[in-house]
Design brief:
Blueprint (H helix, E strand, L loop, with lengths): L2 H16 L9 H5 L4 H5 L9 H20 L21 H23 L16 H25 L1
Length: about 160
């Protein structure tokens, strides 16, 4: 399959996992639609992640994949730390800021995938993973966390 067709398919997969209609049910954006800051901050149990932390975690991994696709230097994520970022609550404005961060990181990821040169999908991204593996994996990551959020909304 030509690379440009593969890239178009990957963009479709990314979008269906994040914010476009898909057969599997709610995507990541759909799972957080209507979630209030209070609900986003509730923990299902001690030492368990809340919805808010999952949102920022998803933004971080979109950033990581974008960075690997573009060979950008580390350390440019807008928040200090990596992977999981503690969120114990906050204002509606802070919740909107973190939702906007997720949106920006998705847009940056999409742009990086759309601009991949021919045959780049087979290139190794460190270890055994190819760039294709990273993009498909971050889409699966969104779907996984969308399901997790759906469960958390019912538990808390």
């Amino acid at each position: 399959m030509p690379t440009d067709v593969c890239i178009r398919h990957l963009l479709t997969i990314l979008d269906q996992a994040y914010n476009r209609a898909s057969w599997h049910g709610p995507n990541l954006r759909g799972s957080i639609r209507g979630v209030t800051p209070g609900l986003a901050a509730r923990r299902p149990a001690l030492r368990r992640h809340n919805i808010w932390e999952i949102v920022v975690h998803a933004a971080y991994w979109k950033y990581v994949v974008t960075r690997r696709l573009t060979s950008a230097p580390r350390g440019s994520f807008p928040l200090k730390g990596s992977n999981w970022f503690r969120r114990d609550g906050g204002t509606a404005a802070e919740w909107r800021d973190d939702l906007a961060l997720l949106e920006r990181e998705h847009a940056a990821l999409r742009a990086a995938v759309a601009h991949l040169p021919p045959r780049a999908l087979d290139r190794r991204a460190g270890g055994k993973a190819t760039l294709f593996d990273l993009v498909a994996g971050v889409a699966a990551h969104d779907i996984y966390h969308a399901g997790q959020i759906q469960l958390l909304k019912r538990l808390v």
